[in-house]
Amino acid sequence: MTVQTFEGFLLTRNWRDTQGGIELEYWFATDSGPLCALVRGERSVFFLEQRQLEAARSLLAERDGVLLGYAQWQLGEAPIAARHPIELKRLYADPDSIGAGIGRRLFDAVRADALAQAADLLWLCVYAGNDRARHFYARQGLIEIGRVPYRFVDQVEDDLALGLHFTPASP
Questions:
Q1: pLDDT above 90 (res 10)
Q2: Residue 36 · residue 27 · CB < 8 Å
Q3: Mean pLDDT across the chain, nearest whole number?
Q4: HEC states along 8-61?
């Protein structure tokens, strides 16, 4: 590995999900011109505000003490009218577990809990460029219900809002 030191300032940063994990891309302005630095294979992390902890539900998928994936969801205001919307905040599968049905089983559990809570909408936001996630959610029956602005430091983009409508059960 070669290490070089540059002076400059950060122009932009982007991230994307890949088969090998999260890939971070940083562009710097240097005296030698633009410089791109890629960081590959990072693991996803998430943070919850203290006030959200009580309302949040979480589910971990593990085998022999090894975390394979997790889901986190809660009652949350939707971008469309809904009486009792449940927002899927996070659904991640370890990159080595993708294709093994972990994400589908986690999603099925979230859907079952949303129905048990009498939700009329299960919804989430996804990065429009995350084709793998968009296809996964389409296979689960979610459709686009709108767009939601997403801010990452000084960058603002629209995430796709996807939703699954539930019809009330007949008495």
A1: no
A2: yes
A3: 82
A4: EEEEEEEEEEECCEEEEEEEEEECCEEEEEEEEEECCCCCCCHHHHCCCEEEEE
Residue pLDDT, tens place only, 54-65: 567 888 888 877
For residues 105 and 68, the answer to whether their CB atoms sit within 8 Å is: no
Residue 118 has which token pair? 């009498």
C-alpha to C-alpha distances, 17 to 94, 97, 131, nearest whole angstrom: 12, 15, 9
Query: Would the pTM count as exceeding 0.70?
Result: no
Given a contact cutoff of 8 angstroms between Cβ atoms, the answer to whether 91 and 110 are in contact is yes
CA-based max dimension of the chain: 71
Residue type at position 8: G
